[in-house]
């Protein structure tokens, strides 16, 4: 009885996000750069979190290795979630290898056990990625992510599973095109039946215009299809860069309430020597938007 009570409490707490699937945090990436561009992940300029967002793009990175750490709030006025990420990758010839970790934390909730005692529990979920990519030709690369997923919703209600991403990237001059299938794997079973992973199919493109020797404007678009429950989402973004040091970004995420709702976003990025600092802020999305006020910062290093 106690186990059933705690599981029900946890699932009621998570119901707004689950919508018939488990671990929806997998589709909330830990990269503020991505958030500032409407949530696009496939064709942005490479940073450490490329190892988690699009493994196939790692081999096109201009530097040999990257590392990064991020802290994000998610739905701060609604569920006050925290999203922390750490990632790194390096290139070796035509290959690139990376690792990434994401921890998604939730507010504590209170529940009553079968003895009438009140207790508090803090749910937490995480994922650990191993990624690799291979440059098939000068302009084309393929990549894969192998992911271990852990979900702890309540006392006696935990689950884990494995998943994989498969991605392809084509890059020629100022144009980048990429596609991916993400979170393909087993179900999450908390003890009373399995819940499917939030698998997605993605396709995106990015084109960078040279406005002047030190001024660049990149336009990015991406379309995502959530497999179950069925939903379509899209991201559009623009990034202005001055002298490859200062970046100003803006984006819009066309969302779906069964997955990630709509929002607007802005962000900045600064690169000094080998260090980079990125920040993003989310707003809008309607009067009842749960994402308004979400923000994130990330510190990166290039080798």
Describe the structure concisely.
Strand 8 (157-172) and strand 9 (175-185) form a beta hairpin. The protein is mainly beta and 303 residues long.
Structure description:
With 303 residues, the protein is mostly beta strands. It has a single domain, classed as Porin (Beta Barrel). It contains three helices and 18 strands. A 14-stranded antiparallel β-barrel has the order 1-2-3-6-7-8-9-12-13-14-15-16-17-18. Strands 4-5 form a two-stranded antiparallel sheet. A two-stranded antiparallel ribbon has the order 10-11. A hairpin with a 3-residue loop joins strand 14 and strand 15 (246-254). It starts with a helix and ends with a strand. The model is unreliable at 1-19 (pLDDT under 50).
Strand order of the largest sheet: 1-2-3-6-7-8-9-12-13-14-15-16-17-18
Percent of residues in beta strands: over 45%
Q: Mind telling me which CATH architecture this is?
A: Beta Barrel
In the CATH scheme, what's the topology name? Porin
Describe the main β-sheet briefly.
14 strands, antiparallel, barrel
Tell me the radius of gyration: 19 Å
Number of strands: 18
Work out the count of structural domains.
Answer: 1
What's the CATH class label? Mainly Beta
Ends apart, CA distance between termini: 55 Å
Mean pLDDT: 91
CATH superfamily: Outer membrane protein transport protein (OMPP1/FadL/TodX)
Tally of individual helices: 3
Class from secondary-structure proportions:
mainly beta
Low-confidence stretches: 1-19
Question: What's the helix-strand series?
Answer: HHHEEEEEEEEEEEEEEEEEE
Global geometry = globular
Q: Name the helicity range.
A: under 10%
